[in-house]
């Protein structure tokens, strides 16, 4: 890509980010009960009032990150929305579990009553992200302490005793290393340690190393595949679960590893991240006939059992844009920029909506819009704005240092 093309891409990304932010500011705020609506149609109409804790936490985090790090978003309405979202989370998201530990609900009614609790760690993960980032813009040390306390509980669930999650131990259930778990813990380590000083960095140093090693266990079949689930010992699992590939997840893990390798000056990890978690899932996951990334694949070529396996979803393409641009910014290898350009062209020509501000999320294999809503139980104010935000900032740096 030429400098002119890079500048044009940055301008398009900047414009798209402004439009996406405006969409959620306009349509998602519940001014009666607090928190955010996420089930939003193409025209901005709220079609379901349930509130999903993953997406509540993500939206608080995203508002705060924009407010804290980009001058044009240092606007009172963004800060107030983040604070209102944080207050809703602190009041309603936490529910007491049978073990006496605090669990976060997965889903709440509009006025904050718990509807569903998942037996996983992810609602808590996004609660931590929200509280830590909100503490940074408000100066509220209680929020930071709350985030760190919940982090300790997560670490205990993952590495010591998972019974607090409420999942029964069944005789036929095989313990697995699902890549999502160490990925999210590594993301939280990076969140909690950013700019906090050496004492906090060292507190989570061993955990960060452990997360990286757990992620690297997913490199399987002599380095030719990234598998989503492996055994606790890092071996391939039998059946569909063991053969499952999720190209978008691998790409997201790739840029998490790139951030970690840059922080610690680990060149070997950087090479592994690019070769195995960025380039490899792209080669395996890109639809050579229609373009775009498949959602799921089976490493042996069987039809995946996930019904949406061949659809093109918004978030894997967001992760691919970040991963290739970050990889290029660290190495200056032109082929990585070429890959970014290919993903960019597909993403902006298929997911971006000329008639409405927010992106579509779900396309058919052929690239046609399958579901035209702009937000739902899993699509909120996160993957699209995080991608646009990060790509704009990386491009700022690339263009500032372009020969």
From TrEMBL:
Protein origin, superkingdom: Eukaryota
InterPro entries: 6-hairpin_glycosidase_sf, 6hp_glycosidase-like_sf, AGE/CE, AGE_dom
GO BP annotations listed: carbohydrate metabolic process; N-acetylneuraminate catabolic process
EC number in record: 5.1.3.8
Gene3D superfamilies hit by this protein: 1.50.10.10
Coiled-coil spans in chain: none
CDD domains cross-referenced by the UniProt entry: AGE
Reactions listed under catalytic activity: an N-acyl-D-glucosamine = an N-acyl-D-mannosamine
Pathway(s): Amino-sugar metabolism; N-acetylneuraminate degradation
Pfam families: GlcNAc_2-epim (PF07221)
Alphabetical keyword list: Isomerase
Listed GO MF terms: N-acylglucosamine 2-epimerase activity
Oligomer status and interactors: Homodimer. Forms a heterodimer with renin and inhibits its activity.
Family: Belongs to the N-acylglucosamine 2-epimerase family.
The protein's name in its UniProt record: N-acylglucosamine 2-epimerase
Organism: Seriola lalandi dorsalis
């Amino acid at each position: 890509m030429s400098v002119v093309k890079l500048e044009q891409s940055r301008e398009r990304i900047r414009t798209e980010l402004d439009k996406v932010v405006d969409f959620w500011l306009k349509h998602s705020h519940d001014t009666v009960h607090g928190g955010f609506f996420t089930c939003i149609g193409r025209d901005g109409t709220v079609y379901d009032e349930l509130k999903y804790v993953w997406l509540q936490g993500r939206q608080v985090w995203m508002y705060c990150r924009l407010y804290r790090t980009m001058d044009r978003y240092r606007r009172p309405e963004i800060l107030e929305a983040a604070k209102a979202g944080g207050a809703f989370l602190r009041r309603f998201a936490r529910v007491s579990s049978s073990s006496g530990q605090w669990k976060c609900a997965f889903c709440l009614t509009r006025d904050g009553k718990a509807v569903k609790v998942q037996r996983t760690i992810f609602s808590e993960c996004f609660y931590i992200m929200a509280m830590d980032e909100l503490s940074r813009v408000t100066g509220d040390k209680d929020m930071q302490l709350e985030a760190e306390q919940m982090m300790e509980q997560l670490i205990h669930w993952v590495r010591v005793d998972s019974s607090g999650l409420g999942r029964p131990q069944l005789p036929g259930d095989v313990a697995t290393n699902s890549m999502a778990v160490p990925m999210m813990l590594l993301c939280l380590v990076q969140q909690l340690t950013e700019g906090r000083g050496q004492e906090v960095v060292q507190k989570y140093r061993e955990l960060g190393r452990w997360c990286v090693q757990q992620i690297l266990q997913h490199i399987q079949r002599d380095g030719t595949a990234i598998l989503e689930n492996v055994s606790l010992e890092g071996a391939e699992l039998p059946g569909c679960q063991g053969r499952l590939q999720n190209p978008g997840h691998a790409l997201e893990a790739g840029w998490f590893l790139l951030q970690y390798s840059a922080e610690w000056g680990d060149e070997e990890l950087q090479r592994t991240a690019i070769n195995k978690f960025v380039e490899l899932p792209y080669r395996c996951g890109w639809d050579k006939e229609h373009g775009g990334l498949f959602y799921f694949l089976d490493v042996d070529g069987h039809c995946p059992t996930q019904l949406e396996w061949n659809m093109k979803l918004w978030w894997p393409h967001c992760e691919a844009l970040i991963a290739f641009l970050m990889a290029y910014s660290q190495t200056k290898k032109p082929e990585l920029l070429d890959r970014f350009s290919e993903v960019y062209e597909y993403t902006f020509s298929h997911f971006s909506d000329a008639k409405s501000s927010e992106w579509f999320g779900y396309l058919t294999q052929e690239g046609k819009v399958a579901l035209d809503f702009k937000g739902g139980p899993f699509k909120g104010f996160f993957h699209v704005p995080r991608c646009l935000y990060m790509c704009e900032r990386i491009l700022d740096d690339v263009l500032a240092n372009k020969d």
